[in-house]
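queue> holo job accepted (flavin-adenine dinucleotide)
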Amino acid sequence: MSRSVVVIVEPKEGETQPIVGEMIGLAERIGRERGSAVRALTIGARAADTAGTIADQTGVRVTALHDPSLATYSAEAWLDLLGDVLPEWRPALVCLAHDSTGLDLAPALAVDLGAACVTGVEGVAIAPGGLEFIRPIAGGKFMARLRPRVDTAVITIMPGVFEPAPPTDSAPGLVEVRAVAARCLRTRSLGVKSSGLSTAGLDQADVIVAAGRGVGRPENLALIERLAALFPRSAVAASRPVVDAGWLEYRRQVGQTGATVAPKLYIACGVSGARQHTMGMQGSGFIVAISIDPDAAIFNLADVVVVEDLTRFIPVFVELCQENQY
Ligand SMILES: Cc1cc2nc3c(=O)[nH]c(=O)nc-3n(C[C@H](O)[C@H](O)[C@H](O)COP(=O)(O)OP(=O)(O)OC[C@H]3O[C@@H](n4cnc5c(N)ncnc54)[C@H](O)[C@@H]3O)c2cc1C
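queue> job finished
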C-alpha cells in the first residue's frame, strides 16, 4: 500500500479557516507528485459537520472521529484516537496548522509515530531523496532547509504561505464518520472562553503604527503616538516584547499570539520581523519598516524601508509633515 499524506483539522465554529484549504492544497501537490493518497481527518463532537464541509469544498476524502464528549481540543484524547487510525494509513506526512493546537500536538504525535517533527514550515521541496521542509530561523533572518532522517514527518504549516486548494468542481469527497471514545483521560477540558478584550481599534484602523523592542524605553512610545496621530483612523500596535514589558496592553499585540490585522498602511518601528509577528500583519496593504538593522527580516516584507534610529527619524518626519500640512 502506498504511503498517504494526512491533514489534521481542528473543528472550529463558523466558516472553515483558510489554513484548511492551504494544508489540503499542499497535501494534494505532494500527493500528485509522489502518487500518495490524500486524506483529511477531524476529531471531536463537531467532527462530522466539519468533515462534510471540507469534503464538499475540496473533494478530498475526510474521516471524522466523532466523540461527543470532546467539545474542545484535548492533546491526550487526540493522541489516543490518532494512535488507532494513523498506523492504518501509513502516513509519509502529517500536516497540521501552525497554531496553538498544531504546536501542542505535533511534537507528541511525532514521538508516537517515530516521525520527524518540523514546525513553522513555509516551503516544501519534493527532492529525489524525499521531502525537504523550509522554515525561518533566527527570527526570520535565515531560512533552514531540513530533510528528515526517517520516512515519516509531522509538520505544522504557517498560515498564508501555501496556495489553497482550488474549490472542487467535481463530486464532494467521501466522508467517513467513526464513532469513537477516548480512553483513560487524565485531563478534562472545562471549555474555552473568549478573553473578552477588544483589539484597541486595530481591526478598524486604516493605518497601524507598531512599536517594537527598538523603541528602547516606554517614554519613546510618545513618538509612535505622534506618528500615528498624523493619520485619520489610525491605531498604535505593539510586538510582544513591548507588551511583555508592560509598556502597552496585550490587546495591542500583533502576531501569532495576538491580533491579525490588515490595514491599508502598517508602519513597523523598531520591529525585527520575527515570523511570530509578521504572520499577524503580512496581509497589510503597504508596509513601511524603520529599523537600525539593515538586515532586519521585516525589510523582506516592506514596501519602503528606513534604515535609521527611530528616535531620530520620527521627530524629523512628523515635523516635516506638520510644516507642510500633509
Ligand atoms: C510561541 C511564540 C509566540 C509569539 N507570538 C508573538 C506575537 O504574537 N507577536 C510578536 O510580536 N511576537 C511574538 N513572539 C515573539 C517573537 O518571536 C519575537 O521575539 C518578537 O516579535 C520580537 O519583537 P521585536 O521585533 O519588537 O524585537 P526584536 O526582535 O528585539 O527587534 C527589535 C528591532 O529594533 C531594531 N532597533 C533597535 N533599536 C532601534 C532604534 N533606536 N531605532 C530603530 N530600530 C531599532 C533592532 O535592530 C531590531 O531589528 C512569539 C514567540 C513565540 C515563541
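queue> Residues 149 and 323 are 62 Å apart (CA to CA).
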